[in-house]
Amino acid sequence: MDQEVIFAPTLRSECLTMTLYDADCDSQFICDFWNVVAGSNPPWTDDMLCRFMKNTTLSPHNCLGRKPTRPLVYIIHLGSQTGPAIGTINISERNPAIPPDIGYAIHSDYRRRGYAFEAAACVLSYWHNSLGLKDIVAFCHPANTISNKLIQKLGFERGGEATLEIGEVLVNAYVLPGMSVTLTAATRFGRMGVDKVE
């Protein structure tokens, strides 16, 4: 089945256009962007990005039984798809025991303008209504007050906590209303996800 039948190649909101990740065109942008925005340590490389994309691609049980051939990552553009790329938004299946999690990053020059909320609300609606994803979680460092508030504004509720394996960092865990998932400090996930066997 063609990937575009599973994932919309383009999503639009009032001020933004989100374009589906294309490994041939977007890998360098994502590595550079995530290294700058997140200050990643270790820094993202092409090999690491390839591993991340493979490991976190959704399983068929999270895609209405269809098997995606690439990850669910969108580049966020201001205005049209030819407008400046200002961020990324994705849903990642990092651990088969945990529902997929939403992740987003906005360039510092474009923060505090509502773009993260606008992009997240748009893709959450798409993932929920078109892909049938009912169970989505969010993780956030407790010190990131703005992002914690944004996650709650999107309708997530505190669902416990989880441990990010890099640095053994305890993070806030959020779930959508009605989910029966309980997350505890024993719930562990890694930035790279679990290595998937072909």
Automatic annotation (TrEMBL):
Any single GO molecular-function term of the entry would be: acyltransferase activity, transferring groups other than amino-acyl groups
- Note the Pfam families from the entry: Acetyltransf_3
Q: Which InterPro entries match?
A: Acyl_CoA_acyltransferase (IPR016181), GNAT_dom (IPR000182), N-acetyltransferase (IPR051531)
Q: Where would I find the N-acetyltransferase domain in this sequence?
A: 18-177
Q: Which PROSITE patterns match?
A: GNAT
Coiled-coil annotation reads: none
Highest taxon listed in the record's lineage: Eukaryota
Please identify the protein, giving its name as recorded: N-acetyltransferase domain-containing protein
